[in-house]
Specification:
- By secondary structure, the chain is of the alpha+beta class.
- It is built from eight helices and four strands; from the N terminus they run ααβααβαβαβαα.
- Strands 1-2-4-3 form a four-stranded antiparallel beta sheet, sandwiched between helices.
- Helix 2 runs antiparallel to helix 5 and helix 3 runs antiparallel to helix 6.
- The longest helix is centred in the middle third of the chain and has 18 residues.
- The radius of gyration is 17 Å and the shape is globular.
- The N and C termini lie far apart (46 Å).
Length: 195
Amino acid sequence: MSTATATRTADTEHPVLDVLADRWSPRAFDAETAIDEAKLASALEAARWTPSANNTQPWRFIVARRGTALHEQIHAALMGFNQVWAGNAAVLIVAVAETTDEQGTPITHAVYDLGQAVAHLSVQAHHDGLVVHQMSGFVAEQIREIADLDERFAPTTVLALGELGDAGILPEPLQQREVAPRVRRPLDETVLLSA
């Protein structure tokens, strides 16, 4: 593991839990170490226990381990430079929103609830020593075909999950992004109104 990418604690304006301040989204994944199945199960369990409106739980996951045909198919559905690095991840997970119920009624909060589930998954994974990087650059129709998804299910994001690797394996521009300072918009620009 690269020591240059091992510690990336956020410089927060206010105190937050260590697991939140320490969590970041690397692109350098260990291409050799298989996923720890217990840690993967815990991350998925954290997602399962996410709160949702009316307890509808409008999320599903497609889980593909490195070395499987499914992993290769999902990797092939990634766009642009995501293909350069994401194949090293021990697991690729497609986060899927259930946008309508079985009767065809829209689930208006589906993407919001899915986002919460992915956040819970990410925090649990980081707590357990794994790293996660979420990607929006993928061809959703390819994923839909791979999984034979009904129209009411929307592939929304792909997550790379695994052990942190050495940033030196990445192309130079991505190496620089791995060690660049972490920044966020100031809190006073994020809160639109506060009375």
